[in-house]
Amino acid sequence: MKNLKVTNIILNHTNRSKAGMAEDFSSRKYNEITLGRSTSCTVAFDPDADNMVSRHHATIKALNDGTFRYQLVDENSTNGVYVNGQRIKGMAVLVPGDKVQLGSNGPEFKFDLTPRPDVLLSETRVMAARATKATEVQASTSVKATPAPANKGNLLTSKATQLMTAVAAGVFLVIILFSNISWIKGEGPSTPKIDHPVKDTAEVVVEKPKGPVAMNPSEMAATYRDAVVYINNSWKLENVQGKQMYHRYTLIEVGDKQYIYPCYIETGNGSYEPYIESFNYQGYSQPVGGQGSGTGFVVSEDGFIMTNKHVSAPWNAPYHFSQDAFPGLAVNQNGQLLVSPDTTYITVQKGQVGTWIAGEAYFGTMKDGKVFEGKMIYQDVIFANRTGRHPARVTRVSDSHDVALLKVDAGTKLTKLEMFDNYNQVSSGSSITIMGYPALTPMAEKYETGNDYYSTTKVRVAPTLAINQGIISAVHKGSTSFNTSTQTRSPFGEAYQLSINSAGHGNSGGPLFDEFGRVIGIYYAGNTDYEDTVSFAVPIKYAIELLAL
Fold this sequence. Notes:
By secondary structure, the chain is mainly β. It contains five helices and 35 strands. It has helices at residues 155-184, 217-224, 309-312, 350-353, 541-548, and strands spanning 8-13, 22-26, 32-36, 43-44, 58-62, 70-74, 81-83, 86-87, 91-94, 99-102, 108-114, 228-239, 246-247, 249-254, 257-266, 272-274, 276-277, 286-287, 289-298, 304-307, 328-331, 347-348, 365-366, 369-370, 372-383, 390-397, 404-408, 431-436, 444-448, 458-462, 466-476, 495-498, 511-513, 519-528, 533-539. The strands form eight sheets. It has a six-stranded antiparallel sheet with strand order 2-1-11-10-7-8, with no helix packed on it. A hairpin with a 2-residue loop joins strand 7 (81-83) and strand 8. The longest helix is centred in the N-terminal third of the chain and has 30 residues, at 155-184. The protein is elongated, with a radius of gyration of 38 Å. It starts with 7 loop residues before the first strand and ends with a helix.
């Protein structure tokens, strides 16, 4: 009678946080065993020590086909699943004794069943034929011949018998010699048939790419979603004394009506910018600052994150005025309203202000430098589908393009992206994929309540990663030493023009991938005439330069 009763599934852990542990699961109770860092998994790994394991990395499932076999399913994990050292594609059937590893350097365990069914005993391993020494045949002198019965009267017969024996031995030696020669040449007898159960496993393909391997957008999302982050912040403009700066709004009376207008000062080149001061004039002024969101991506395992300058240091980027900021009224250095010869107030339209950089305010610039500086009230990084906020600080800002570097202290190694500078090779028509968090994408919300007495239920944002695919429509070149007679350049600066126009605000700072999953640019801007929109990305060379400083 064959043993067909399985009572337990055994996972013998051999390394990392569970090294030396054995976990025992009843086959009657567990039809499947989930593996991952999430606390909801049947086998939950340490979220810090085993950070290469995905939240829901893999599942062991019973086939329920009467054979007591189990299959291992890769649940779209970031770092893959390995069986006996080979990465599986999708799933593989397990047999007792198989070694399973979550990620190439992740936790490993040995899969086993107890008692083992006879039909699933470890298979007899047939070794490949190896060159070995031929069996040595000892010389006949090393063996004592059994003396023949004494027959002194028939010496000739005795001699003949010895001769025949010698001939037979010689023939035997020749047969053995040729047999060994044939064996060495691979012409020996066929391998005998071994009557053992055949191991039933899915085909495992060992990937040995000679170069970069193409990836589709869904593969990129599954592999890199933990490396693309949501950035949320709030900032204000201060003077050197640390006081909040305000854009003056003033109250004027026209007849029996009152109006509130923003005030602007001429910079000397015919353009205007906001008239700012360190107090709230008449109580109508607006604080200079704002709230925003954007995208970033991890470029080092210890928490450096690349994004746009206008996302992480908004005071160094074009200011976003409120809807009531225009039209405005012109004032002089003392804040007095200017009037025209016909005694009407001089108005200022949006086109007369153009692009205003709060951190470079004309009115606050002295000969020895700026007297205004931006300050973050908060700047948090949130990972995809999670609610935890990680405070971030600005470490570097590019003077060449819209690029900045943040740093978070995540307390664990992070998944990072590979940056690839192909600026001199990229061309129109190249396939690209963008990941990020567009403002128009609905954000998932989670209700969380702490365990302490004072906790209240809070609604937390769990950002949803969006993916867009398209092509590079045009490559706009720039020059640091521009000569109008010999060179041409784009008024928009060095940039990749994209066919993707659905990303929009909030996607700024997001990675631009090539077809191999390498980051070749950073999404940063859009240009619209209210009917059509064109999007642009910064070539990744500027991010690489920033890291090299």
